[in-house]
Amino acid sequence: MIVTRLEDINRYRGLSTNLDTAFDWLLKEKWQNLEQGKHAIFGEAIYALVQSYKSKEHAACRFEAHRSFIDIQMLTSGEEIIEALPREGLEVLEPYKPDIEFYVTPKDSAACRLFMKPGLLAIFFPEDAHRPCMIAGDGPEDIGKIVIKVAV
I need a labelling partner for 69 at 20 to 30 A (CA). Which of 46, 97, 123, 144 fits? Predict the structure, then answer.
């Protein structure tokens, strides 16, 4: 897992060609003013999902992980909490289906808690289970988010 500011993502260049392509797309701000939905960046190997939703109570959010893709999650509006844990050892709640698997939230979770706001990026690799969309403040908030799916 990597958490960084948009302006600092060049530090992580060289991890993969696909990640570098995704970073280029983000830095050129091609995501500004996109409609909700799926947008190809490089075919099916790299694409952006533009989302809009209300943040949820923590109990309504589930840990998830992806086997074939890296997730780059960036809020464009609002604030939310994302928790992250190593995927290994988590109990499967919903078995893998392309490209997601859901996990039971551990009772004594020592999850890393990320307070996300616009300008921050969270990059989750296949070994990183993450639980996004959680309320960060006093109640549900309107969230704008881009999730870039990057093939490993």
Answer: 144
